[in-house]
Every structure is written in C-alpha cells, then in structure tokens.
Amino acid sequence: MVILMMIQVTVKMHLLQMSPLNMKQQLLKLLIRIVSYCHKQTLNLHQEDHKDNQSAFGALENEIAEGFLAVVDEIVKAHNGLGLSDLYPSLKFIPVDMFPGGVETSASTIEWTMSEMVKNPRVLQLAQEKVKGIFQSKGNVDENRLNELIYLHAIIKETLRLHPAGSLVLPREMRETVHIYEFEIPANTRVLVNVWAIGRDPSYWMDAEKFCPERFLNSSIEYKGTNFEYIPFDAGRRICPGIQFGMSVVQLTSANLLFHFDWKALNGLENLDMIEQFGITLTRKQVLRLIPIAPDYAMPMLP
C-alpha cells in the first residue's frame, strides 16, 4: 500500500510541473504532506520488522546503515556546514524515486511479459521449450546462462516495445528554439517524449500492434538509446542507470516461471483483458490472474 502511494505521488509530481503557478503552490503543499505520511509509514513497517531481530544479519544491517549515515553527515559538513538534520527533508523524497524506478518497473514488465505470452500460446510454448531445453539437465535456471535465452530476450524486448515501463520519459527543457517538421518548439519549453506511441508507430514497425518477438531475432535494434525508434529506457545522459540489472531480474524471473510451470488464463484467453492503466509506470488496469500448472515430471510419484 505504501509503495502504491509513493508511485501515485510521483505521477502527481510530474503532472504538477505542467500546472499553472497558483495551482502548483497548493498541490505542492499537499504532496509534501503525502510524502511525509508515506515516509512515516515506511519507517514504522521497517521498525516492526526489525525490533525483535537480534540475528547477525540484523546487526550487520544496522552497522552498515549507521556507517552510511555517518559518512553522509561528514561529507555534508565538510562542504557547506550543514548537518544531516538539515538534509533530512530532502532524503525523505529518495523513496519516491526508488520505488517506481527500482521496483515497480521490473514488476510491471514481468506482468506484461506473462500476459503477452499467455495471450499468444505459440510464443508461450516455444519460450518454454527453449528454456527447458537449456536448463532441463540441471533441474533449475542458472543465472550465469541467461545470455543463452535468446528467444526469451526477444520476447521481453517486444513486451517493452508495446508496454514500456515508463510511457513518458523524464521531462526535458529546450535550451533553444527548434523546428521539427511544421512545428516550432520555443526555448525553455518542457517536453515529454511519448515512448509508448513511438513503439507502436507503423512508420517504424511492421504490424506495429502485433506481438511478434521474432522481429528482434537477428536484429541490431537495441534498447541502449542508440535506436530512437525503440527507447523503453530513455536515451542520452538521462538513460536509465539500471538497465542491465532490471533486464536480468525480468529475464531470470520469467525464465523460472516458464521452467517450473505451465500457465493458462483463469477465465480463458477470450477474457484476458490487456487494457493499460496510465501512470508513472504503465501497468495493467485489471489484475493478471493465471493458473500455474506443475508439469508431469515435477509431480512426486505416489506409492
């Protein structure tokens, strides 16, 4: 619940930048109160989880946290004389960036990946065959061999094309007046790039609305910001710093789901809703409900 509130606050902050000045002042005061409440709730949950924790891991965690805060305190004092207490109001906003950027994006991508595969049984079956063909002998997914999952990687890339985790990249401000086709964009204009629309533009993609992972097989198009028709992680100096980590998490989780279970929609494919819900991350409007089915080889033998 706290994470969802953090994400909603982040959405409102982006929309706030496009509001008139008189509205900004009132909305900003409200948002600061919401962030403070979320921060307090997060601290309460953390304290409840660790108040009885006397393990070595708990002691190590506290030692690392105290050491980090001490280093920050010394750095701040050395530069401008401020103490950690002066920095605290700004530190409260760090989770607003961390939760949507580091948690929700990966979870949303995994959910859309599973949605698209279940919606396309041919893709799901082929993906399972590829995963099991590589890891069947070992009995589990080895993260050191994720680079061999070429087809699954193509599936994730196609998912990001249709359902980018961030439908609108971080806002830019024009340094000078430019002309793009018949449009003039004045200097100091705040610009939002619609990644969702670019990924579905038929000028760049054949059968743009069709889920087709094969388009990325033997393709040089990557998500690292060099192909502007495909920028799910943004591009330039503001490109997502956690690309490799995020893709590894999505690939490893998806591979495990495919390796250990077969999947089918709870209410049938015809009722699998693929409507999106707009926000700082592009999530499903309806909760994804799937039935995991253990394969025959995973069932224990009865006496």
UniProtKB/TrEMBL annotation:
<keyword id="KW-0503">Monooxygenase</keyword>
<feature type="binding site" description="axial binding residue">
    <location>
        <position position="240"/>
    </location>
    <ligand>
        <name>heme</name>
    </ligand>
</feature>
<dbReference type="GO" id="GO:0004497">
    <property type="term" value="F:monooxygenase activity"/>
</dbReference>
<dbReference type="Pfam" id="PF00067">
    <property type="entry name" value="p450"/>
</dbReference>
<dbReference type="GO" id="GO:0016705">
    <property type="term" value="F:oxidoreductase activity, acting on paired donors, with incorporation or reduction of molecular oxygen"/>
</dbReference>
<keyword id="KW-0479">Metal-binding</keyword>
<dbReference type="GO" id="GO:0020037">
    <property type="term" value="F:heme binding"/>
</dbReference>
<keyword id="KW-0812">Transmembrane</keyword>
<protein>
    <recommendedName>
        <fullName>Cytochrome P450</fullName>
    </recommendedName>
</protein>
<dbReference type="GO" id="GO:0016020">
    <property type="term" value="C:membrane"/>
</dbReference>
<dbReference type="InterPro" id="IPR001128">
    <property type="entry name" value="Cyt_P450"/>
</dbReference>
<keyword id="KW-0349">Heme</keyword>
<comment type="similarity">
    <text>Belongs to the cytochrome P450 family.</text>
</comment>
<keyword id="KW-1133">Transmembrane helix</keyword>
<dbReference type="InterPro" id="IPR052306">
    <property type="entry name" value="CYP450_71D"/>
</dbReference>
<keyword id="KW-0472">Membrane</keyword>
<dbReference type="InterPro" id="IPR036396">
    <property type="entry name" value="Cyt_P450_sf"/>
</dbReference>
<dbReference type="GO" id="GO:0005506">
    <property type="term" value="F:iron ion binding"/>
</dbReference>
<dbReference type="InterPro" id="IPR002401">
    <property type="entry name" value="Cyt_P450_E_grp-I"/>
</dbReference>
<keyword id="KW-0560">Oxidoreductase</keyword>
<keyword id="KW-0408">Iron</keyword>
